[in-house]
Amino acid sequence: MEGITEFLPISSTGHLVAFSELMGIDASDRSVIAFNAVIQGGAILAILVYFTKDIVRIGKGFAVGLFNRDKRGIDYRYGWYVIVGTVPIVLAGLLLSNVVDRIFNLWVVAVGMIGWSFLMWFAERVATQQRSETHANMRDAIFVGLIQVISLFPGVSRAGATMTAGLLRDFDRESATRFSFFLGIPALTGAGLLEMGELAGGSVPAASLITGVVVSAVVAYIAVAWLMKFVTTHTFMPFVWYRFAFGVVLVIAVSTGLIGAGG
């Protein structure tokens, strides 16, 4: 579930909370939250492998540009955009971690899933998609980075927030998706590292943790490869309708007692 949903704009957190409750696992338990954050390492690995050439090129361009003003091209600037775009969620994550942990329940997830589906729909309607990565600037990085903070709210989706923000800045879908992926590398890495201490006491068996990371990596790679092809010829609307439907199903399931709200 982590591998499938982490980089699709449908909320990995929302799905992990929902399916944890279905399996009788308390999604608000600290060890469960930590486990989910750590297995994101598999998803990060998938991104690193899929975009190896791009990451190496950007990293090289950034490093060269730091020491040589005359060679500060798009890769140097893009490196800064990723760094600046990551700062807001790092600060918010550190300041609001205790608050976020207390709202891990399916009512909140349902609100996030349904509410953000309308914003994604709006972005699809108004976006001109006339800009690509080469047109990116620092204002774009700040805007997308700030919107990414909203993804701390369960059900919104980090990918959904950043892709929507990219569209609102008039990027084409492929460029918005790629920037979302690159922003995910430091954000997800940081979240996983912060939670490693929670699992240090052996609250989750090592075999389970390793299995989760490996499965997440393999499935996430497939999902990323599929999504990059999908966005070149399709809109985000299928994800909008899926989010809305999933949110409605959650409301019905929790209201009727078919599943516990958790938290």
Note the main attributes of this structure.
263 residues; mainly alpha; 12 helices; globular
Largest sheet: none
Average per-residue pLDDT, rounded, comes to: 89
**Looking at the chains present, what oligomeric state does this protein adopt?**
single chain
Compute the number of strand runs: 0
Number of helices: 12
Gap between N and C termini: 20 Å
- Report the portion of residues in β strands: under 5%
Domain count: 1
Describe the global form. globular
How helix-rich are the residues, as a percent range? over 70%
Describe the structure.
The chain has helices at about 1-5, 10-20, 30-40, 40-50, 50-65, 75-100, 105-125, 140-150, 160-170, 175-200, 205-230, 235-255. It has about 260 residues and is an all-alpha fold. It has one domain (about 1-255). It is globular and about 60 Å long. The chain starts with a helix and ends in an 8-residue tail after the last helix.
Question: How do the strands and helices of this protein lay out in sequence?
Answer:
Layout: H1 2-5, H2 12-22, H3 30-38, H4 40-50, H5 52-67, H6 74-101, H7 106-126, H8 138-149, H9 158-168, H10 173-199, H11 206-230, H12 237-255
Please give a quick description of this structure:
This protein is mainly α and 263 residues long.
